[in-house]
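User: Structure please.
Assistant: Input sequence and predicted structure:
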Amino acid sequence: MANFVLASDLEGVLIPEIWPALGKSLHIPELSLTTREVSDMNVLMKIRLGVLKRDGVEFPDIIKHLSAVKPFEGAEEFMSKVSKLRNVSPVIISDSFEQFVDVVLKKRYGWKVFVNKFDVSFGRLEGCKLEVGGKKDIILSKINRSGRKTIAVGDSFNDVGMLKLVTSPILFNPVPALQKAFYKAIVCKDFAGLFDVIQKITSEKT
């Protein structure tokens, strides 16, 4: 068993924010709202599903527009390099959705993924199951019970619960307010620097 678990957010760290990208592509401004504007995930999803229904957008349309969203440059190489670290088990803990991840992040390089799921029936988006939404800290708590040291990577305030529970919190291109509030965390600006920090942490404490 690996000595460390690396828990990373997805959107804003490895891939662009999906909903704002869909809002721009579909010309629906309300879809650009994120947890930065609406902190309650249940309320936010009601808004999103409501406007999609209002505008008659079906799930195949969403997936079609989503195909233009790609991982950040260097993200896949970073994921591949981390997966080769023998003492690290990498996981993604995200408020994103399984069907989105399948499209945007086709290669997972052995990373385990914790995300939400959409309820889709005959091409219609009926609802969603928030298996992660607002519960990143709960998932991290369960991981901590394994006794392994934990590292978390996040970029925004919805990652704070997760970042507070780990041995080594890392901020990746964070919003300024988060960096100020979480001043003790390591800050990384690119994937090369992020990998170096992870490699250093896992080498020093094994």
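The mean pLDDT is 91.
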